[in-house]
Write a structure and sequence with these properties.
- By secondary structure, the chain is an all-beta fold.
- The protein has two domains: 35-119, Sandwich (Immunoglobulin-like), CATH 2.60.40.380; 128-201, Immunoglobulin-like.
- Helices cover 0% and strands 53% of the residues.
- Strands 11, 12, 14, 15 and 16 form a five-stranded antiparallel sheet that branches. The protein has a four-stranded antiparallel sheet with strand order 6-5-8-9, with no helix packed on it. Strands 3-4-7 form a three-stranded antiparallel sheet, with no helix packed on it.
- β8 and β9 (112-119) form a beta hairpin.
- The radius of gyration is 25 Å and the shape is flat.
Length: 203
């Protein structure tokens, strides 16, 4: 909040100018339209990546999932904690999304919005499965640790050996369910690099 000082003077007279002050709120300008893209899909889940540059820490984005392009029937709404950068939005578990069906997703950030159409995959067998977390191993890295869980709180931390410059960790999960994870590279038992948190849909 700023205060704008005003001075009003009548050029036709020699009267003293009038002084006044009014409050002025300045909204920081944000650049560009939001980024919104379908990252993955299963028969009953949609995983999206979104965000917008130039947002301050207090500016959040809201993501809506609709059954129609006009969002007359909104199936779910999610809001992040605010700030610039890219975020994940997973829709599916508990929403009853149908296989091989087209849905619509809209993200609104700082006064701008973007919409994409996102389709679930055709029906298949839903069962216990695995989410393969694969990454290139930096020089000197011999182990990959995967912190994972059904929420961003994570919780489980298995480790797997790396070979030929690649690290692959099979993580138990239910097919079609979103899995939050974060990887850590180890060398001689010491953590040398930690990745940013991410989300994957189990197969």
């Amino acid at each position: 909040m700023y205060t704008l000082q005003l001075t009003v003077r009548d050029s036709r007279t020699s009267a003293a100018p009038l002084l006044g002050a009014v409050p002025l709120t300045v909204q920081p300008e944000t650049a560009g339209a939001p980024r919104l893209e379908l990252a993955d899909a299963t028969e009953g889940s949609l995983l999206l990546r979104y965000g917008r540059t130039g947002l301050s820490a207090g500016q959040a984005c809201t993501v809506k999932l609709g059954a129609d392009a006009g969002f007359v029937q909104t199936l779910a709404t999610a809001t992040d904690t605010g700030g610039a950068g890219l975020w994940w939005a997973a829709f599916g578990p508990g929403l009853g999304l149908m296989p091989n069906r087209l849905y619509y997703v809209r993200v609104s950030c700082g006064g701008a919005a973007a919409t994409v159409a996102a389709a679930t995959r055709p029906a298949g067998r839903v069962s216990a499965g695995v989410a393969q977390v694969t990454a290139a191993a930096p020089a000197g890295v011999d182990m990959l640790r995967v912190d994972y869980g059904s929420t961003a709180a994570l919780g489980t931390r298995p480790e797997t050996a790396c070979a030929a410059g690649r690290c692959t960790a099979p993580v138990p999960a239910v097919s079609g369910q979103p899995l939050d994870y974060q990887t850590a590279y180890l060398s001689g038992g010491q953590v040398v690099r930690v990745s940013k948190p991410a989300v994957v849909l189990a197969r």
